[in-house]
User: Fold this.
Amino acid sequence: MFWSSALVLGLTHLCLSTPLTSKRLDTDDLLEKHSWAEVPRGWEWVNKPDPESIIQLRIGLKQDRVDELISSLYEVSTPNHNRYGKHLSKEEVDVLVAPHPDSVEAVESWLLHHGVDPTDATFRSSSGSWISVLVSVSKAEQMLGTEYGLYHHPQSSSYVVRTLSYSLPRELHQAISVVSPTTYFGTLRSMRATSFVEADISDQVADISATVPSSCASRITIACLQALYNTSGYIPSATDSNSLGVVGYLGEYANRNDLQTFLTRYRTDAVGTAFETITVNNGEDDQSEPGVEANLDIQYTVGLSYPTPNIYYSTGGSPPFNPDSETITDTNEPYLDWLNYILANDTIPQTFTTSYGDDEQTVPYDYAVSVCNLFAELGARGSTVFFSSGDSGVGGGDCLMNDGTNTTLFQPAFPASVTAVGGTTGNSPEVGVSFSGGGFSRYFGIPSYQADVVAGYVSSLGSEYSGLYNTSGRAYPDLAAQGTSFSVIVGGQTYSVGGTSASSPTMAGIFTLLNDYRLANNQSSLGFINPLIYANSGGFNDITSGSNPGCDTNGFTAVTGWDPVTGLGTPDFVKLQAIVRA
Ligand SMILES: *[C@@H]1O[C@H](CO)[C@@H](O)[C@H](O)[C@H]1NC(C)=O
Ligand SMILES: *[C@@H]1O[C@H](CO)[C@@H](O)[C@H](O)[C@H]1NC(C)=O
Ligand SMILES: *[C@@H]1O[C@H](CO)[C@@H](O)[C@H](O)[C@H]1NC(C)=O
Ligand SMILES: *[C@@H]1O[C@H](CO)[C@@H](O)[C@H](O)[C@H]1NC(C)=O
Ligand SMILES: *[C@@H]1O[C@H](CO)[C@@H](O)[C@H](O)[C@H]1NC(C)=O
Assistant:
């Protein structure tokens, strides 16, 4: 994602001068790890949870050689480097992210001190850097010097058990990067800006067309995207090894019958093709409840990448309470749980798309860095990971900071920045769509691959918006694709759906074809593409108009070259084929 110098800080090796004593693990030597100045916006305290109820505590240990992981990631992802394309195996990555033995020992002593047997862990990543244990709320409160509360988010009707601050014994700050669930509330939302039922138009748009059908001005279908992005006529052949993963959250189910209806209308040669559904973390697959987001994603990834196998990951929240508890309905640790699940597999899809995100400021910094490092593992292993850039332009609502100051600042999205896809609309020419999320991270510094083009844009802004955004932050989006008026079948009816939720699966479909092209030629998958695309912006149609208003401003404006509305632009598959084979 942001993979930048901020993450490459060498980790100080642990050197515990004296053995940990009970006292030093106890509650009288606690040092704050993270706290919020106020209850996260949109959430309300409900009550104190039953102290005897059980939560699953996920402990992220400091990864001893994570700086080497990041440098390996860059080497295998930078064209012309002698390691380009030589992705790491799961075992090789595990060596780099393993915690120092002193950290493991310190954490295990701490657990034992609190009567938690580390061998009872419900999850332990193969590298040893993540441990999950079941503890009662009162035990967790003791360990973390905190008080948990049950909080309600009326807008999404979700309930979570979280705290406003937590602490760790002083010694353990060197051993532990993050503990959750604690202060990350997770206001995860689907990046679906608009969706409404469309008159059920019976005319069918012809498959596989080289020119953009005129109907694409008002409704986007597979044929429109194939023509716009130049994929018409490409037939994938590496389908025994290549695959595309769609990551779903929030009880969104991808419906199999709706996919067939969609294919019958918009991709007739693919009728009968199926996708696999993998449920993660008690995720479900209720075929009577088709999700707009899930159907949008899977219909467009299958429609563009057919006959490449597609997998839909239905990721459930991990209820932290015993399932018999009636009070808790939703306690997501979405990225952590999905990432730890997928990274445990020896074989992983070469391309992923996720259409969900949060405001960066709602994600505690340590949590964001830990998640970012897990995405770095995926990239190092050869997967290309797309996220929607968000649907609020430079920021939704009043854009007040949550640090107690109430300053108005542009609000960057998280984790929009692995490879972030913004939105466009129209086709002659394509223009940046007003909701396209874009901006500059305040957590992650600017990576070298984009430093030049971003500096160019920032200097063209001059003093405009000065102070509202971070001139030295990781800038996004990286790319863009159509984001309005996608025809999606939901429950047999045609809906018109818009949002960068549509743009990310579109990009994933096209890069799946590019991965196919490389695999079919005995080359590796593309993996983390940012160094490649910034060095080859000629593979994209530069989008030079449109803007992304927000925070009571006009937002940024799309210009020639990179901009924080449409990134480098929209893909031209034919040109990209030449680039990725080089
Ligand atoms: C498709 O690729 C061809 C060959 O590079 C190029 O001439 C044409 O402009 C591209 N069309 C679109 C719509 O991108
Ligand atoms: C690993 O990935 C493969 C291919 O994506 C999938 O079929 C399999 O179910 C996964 N294994 C596990 C344990 O999740
Ligand atoms: C910040 O703004 C919120 C919402 O408008 C308000 O409830 C809160 O009191 C303000 N805090 C400060 C420190 O001004
Ligand atoms: C801008 O980003 C850098 C790099 O992450 C960070 O160190 C700095 O604090 C950020 N500045 C602001 C004003 O947020
Ligand atoms: C790829 O490798 C296989 C097995 O080594 C070989 O049969 C095939 O001809 C190669 N294909 C290309 C395009 O190089």
Q: What stands out?
A: Residues 6, 442-445, 470, 472-473 surround 2-acetamido-2-deoxy-beta-D-glucopyranose (ligand 4) (CB under 6 Å).
